[in-house]
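Researcher: Sequence of PucR family transcriptional regulator follows. Predict its structure.
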Amino acid sequence: MDGTRPSPQVRELIRQCAKIVVNARPEWLEELDHAVLKANPSIASDPELAAAVGRTNRSNLYFWGTANVRDPGAPVPPNTGAEPLGVARDLVRRGLDSLSLDAYRVGEGVAWRRLMEIAFALSSDPAELHEALDVCSRSISAFINATLAGIAAQIELERDELTRGTHAERRETVALLLDGAPVPRQRAESRLGYRLGGSHTAAVIWTDNPDTDLAQLDSAADAFGRAGRARPLIVTASTATRWVWTPGPVDVSVLRPAGNVRVAVGSIGDDVDGFRRSHFDALTTQHMMARLHSPQQVAEFTDVEMVSLLTTNADRAAVFVKRVLGDFESASPELHSAVRMFVREQCNVSRAAGKLFTHRNTLLRRLARADELLPRPLADNSIEVGVALDVLHWRG
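Model: Prediction complete. Tokens:
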């Protein structure tokens, strides 16, 4: 920016454009998030990071937009607030800080194309549009450069805190174990304060809601350890994610995470290989919950493994559900639960009725109603119907 003030007409055009940016349509924001995440698969594969990047996109749009509503065409100071700084810290913790630049540049390109569309919708004067777009182009570029520089400077000041000390030592040791590095067991156990022999159950505990009290994550991690009746190993993977391991099995039915905290539980496994596999199973479960926008707060890998495989392609999964369930897809939750339990109990009416705490005749009536809505009789297609209902159960 060279300090030259735009003409009054151009200032007003920029102000009107900025007002629309501040109140961006949901589909515009989705387009921005999709482009940034598509260009950064390492971020997209992490539900918490993906949600945080989305919040940062909105923060940057709002920051630049409100500045130009107040003073159109004036230099915009860097946005070094909580959202962008928090994402940068988490990228450093994961060793992904080089991706920050790519994410901002992709977002800049998408936002610039949308701003041009807005400007051309508001004015048809070539000279006015030329001046306004020239000012905005330089303004956005300067804003992004200043924001990245400000974040980089702040992160450099905090890098020692982020990458050294007891927590970072545990995080580094866990990363080596997960990568299959030949870390001596005695040394790893000493650094972690956790025995690697025997069996393990891992969990990923996280939140994608920025208003969540992060102390609730630590409470959930402690509760996971109590459910396993042993002292857990807890690693702070990022600001809003905890990786947890506890020896032996875990009674998942007693877990009651508070607020927006979510828990993905891996399968039980033995020794170092089990430590590693259980964690990756928990990550698979977490990614499935995020991909399907699942309303469930707690999920076990053993319950969702088939659904996870089936929903890798969400569009194909939706087609499968529609084909198998037909009109039954939109039936009541009571009907869905009745049929799902009936299939799980090997189509035994008495056992299913007992699990549902309902009368046998009530269950029979619900099964008859389901047959009226299903494209094929339940007796001829119970396996596919059960799988489709599992997808519905986990899908938001």
